[in-house]
Amino acid sequence: MAKRTNITIVRAARAMLHDQGLPLQLWAKACNTMVYLHNRSLHHILRMKTPEEAFYGKRQDVGHFSIFVSSVYFHVTKDAQKNLELTIELGILVGYTDTPHNYRVYLPTSWRIVVRRDIKIDEQKSMRVFLEREFQLQKELLVPKEEKPQTNVEQHMQRFQD
User: Fold this and answer.
1) Domain ranges of the chain
2) Do the strands 88-96 and 71-75 form a parallel or antiparallel pair, or are they unpaired?
3) pTM of the prediction?
4) DSSP string for 73-137
5) Residue pLDDT, tens place only, 9-19
6) Which pLDDT tens digit goes with each residue over 78-92?
């Protein structure tokens, strides 16, 4: 049973990374996020309870869940800023911590992952990018491919069918 769950988690993490075009070095963070979400999701075998609710007897707060790899903005503290630099930084949401409302944020400019609490999540941007990608994929699938010329064998077979 555990092996099947691990395979499901790794496949979901792979799909999340490839779907959003993130570097594969973040596979462990994507797996951690999947486990975090899995442990806080309802399970049929537990009579529609979460594993934590079944074990501890109280339901977890899931109000802080956001779309994986959403753009996030956070304030740069004064001691970390240099003169005339921006006071906010852009990152990508890649996970959660065990402390509620703390998020793991990937900083693409420095290739680091930091934990931040007070962030502004832009889920609308993530949804727009996702919908544009889906629309482009649908458009590519619906466009008829150029007809290639038939080979001699195909022409011969078509004569017998007519």
Assistant:
1) 2-144
2) antiparallel
3) 0.61
4) EEEPPTTT--TT--SEEEEEEEEE-SSTT-EEEEETTTTEEEEESSEEEEHHHHHHHHHHHHHHH
5) 888 888 878 77
6) 666 676 666 778 888
